Amino acid sequence: MNETLSEHAAQALEWPRLLDLLAQHAQSTIGAAQCRSLSLSSDLADARLRQQETTEMAGLLDGSDPMPTLSFPDIREQLTRSRKGGTLEAGELRDCAVVFALMAEVERYAESHKDETQALAHVLSPLHSTTRSLRGILRAIEGAIQSDGSMKDTASPDLRRLTHQAQELKQEMRQRLEQILHSKRYEEVLQESYFVQREGRYVVPVKADMRGRIPGIVHDVSASGATIFLEPRELVELNNSIKVADLGIEREVHRILRELSGLVASKAEDIDQGVGALAECDVIKARAEMSRRLKCNPVALNEDGRIMLKRARHPLLLIAKDQVVANDLHLDETIRVLVISGPNTGGKTVTLKIVGLFALMVRGGLHLPCTPDSEMALFIDLYADIGDAQDLSRDLSSFSAHMTHMIRILSERAARPTSNDCSAPRSLVLLDEPVTSTDPQEGAALAEALLCRLAELNMKVVATTHYGALKELAQTTSGFANASVEFDVEQLAPTYRLFIGIPGGSSALEIAGRLGMDESILGEARKRLHRDGQRLDELMADLQRKQRQLIEDTEKAQRARQEAEQAAREAQVLRAQLQETEQEARRGLKKKIGEQFQRARAEVQATVDSLKREQKLIKAKETKQRLHELETQTRQELAPAGKSIPLEQLGIGDTVEIAGLGMTGSLLETPQGKKRVRVKVGEGEVLATVSNLVGLAGESASEVSAAPSENARRFPTGGGLGLDEQTVVDVRGQAADEALDQVVAALDRATLHGAPYLRIIHGHGTGRLKSVLREYLKESPYVAEFRPGDRAEGGDGVTVAKLQQT
Questions:
Q1: Which of 130, 274, 677, 766 is the most exposed place for a label (fewest CB within 10 A)?
Q2: What residues contact 395, with CB distance under 8 A and at least 6 apart?
Q3: What is the pTM of this model?
């Protein structure tokens, strides 16, 4: 009876095994020990905070700059001893320095990742003040102690002096010994030609029967007695000097160690807090590492007794198996008792342990192996009666042991203040086959009464059973619910799939038959089985099949929906690609038409040259008519199919494109019976030739105003001043070749329409564009002369060309 109910529940759920797994991910001995005795939250806010700590640490581990390695020695015993005035050894001080340096490193890391460690901040906060107070001590220890735990000769001036003195004496001793070993006097008495130290004094091996030949002090005898280790009299004084020097070094080393130990003792409380912060950080890191290994997720927590687990898996099975069946388990606030039925080895106990382990894991700040949209209730008390409770040492049968355990649970719960019936349950009870190992009818009746009492005591209960009476109770009683596990009779294997809402049969006869039981025995058993019970088993099996089919259909529907959504996304991408292809084709067509215009300009140029020689007006008119026909044909080819509007149907406000310029705008006057009309482009107006207009369907004037074409945006509006399309060309921002093509086309149009001037807007920029255009204008047969624009016209960023008049 010494074991508490909580400890019993933890053992039954194999909680220590899970904590051992957690401890394997710790990097320090302190962290591993704390993992094995993981503290559990009893407050919802604290439990949420601990889950957030694990989430933040997992994020750091997945990042490009993970948390430093938290492997550090346990120095708590050294701290206690230093507080009591004890002197620490050099190796122990070296361990202290390792811990101090790690504190500083983690503190710097936390500072550089403070935006990612909001929940971890309270864990790491003790390091901020601790590391500052330990900087001087760390420098003192590192200045005196080697990384291998030995004392540095330079730890103090006195130690440096004493060490140098001792080294000189020992060097002198070696020289004296070398002389002895090679002298004729010692040749016969020495057992071998070497020297050693005994009790800190230098000696030589002398034959035992020759000891009288050399005066001195015997310090040791060999095991065989054939050799004595003699300190020659001539070396006694030098050995004494060396001993004095070594004692001086020893006293100075002890003084330094005592001084450093005092420094550690003066900050022992701060150091202890820092060690605690490192250990807690190591535990959190272990929780995050286990979360990553088991592919866990943080889940929502509540105090309402609501358990909504999706694709939940047993954490210990994930370690032992490659494939683990995931199940959904939904117990909302209205369900107090869930009764799980089904055949043996079907996974009923696994489901019990999943619920129990998850209840402990969320209190310990662990993530759960389920989907992140799951939810788990916070249960402060956990009771479990799982497995065989037989206790031979106390002469208790299985039934008696189970009853004793249940009596303890009821007694402990009854001793607490009665909860309001409307309040959420804070206790979780897990019962595996309650009230068995006795008469089935009496056992079923007692189990019914027990479950009803636990529900009355406001406890959340999950129980497994083979009793039909409990299945009926769960189906007909408010606050109760049935669930079943599936067993594949054909394969003689459990599927471990859980069905909420329907009970399950034990399938004992089918399983026995598959295992090879004599058919005559099975037939006799079926005869003895009550017909109602047989029909009930058949009904439950049929319900399971329908439930399984429904789940499969639902999964198919979900997959179909996902595929449809993916197809819709692909169709959207394809539509965008087709639109881009269409735009590319249109740009290619415009380029082709541009080439046709180039050929037409060449022909016009030839005609102009001919006119200069022949001065025949009729030929110029023919050429002008021919170019007009070509432009009309081009406009028809460029106009979108089915979208153009005949000129005679255009009115004020209709959207039109000015062919040849690539400009789009809205009509400010009707074009019927006119040669030129005003067109609003952007914020300005253009005087356009009616024959160059193409009506566009499906676009409003507001759309045009909001999104003018590229050429319209570049076309100067002159602050609302009306401009003739034949007398202005804007080539700002274009490459020289492209701008030159635009200017040549503008010269063609201006000449054919009899315009006297062409204003070319090229801007200042680097001056190259202006230079190229003006070089061309010097040679152009269209241009009589040109000049920079005046201040009102745009200054040197504009060139005004006077055209030849024919």
A1: 766
A2: none
A3: 0.63
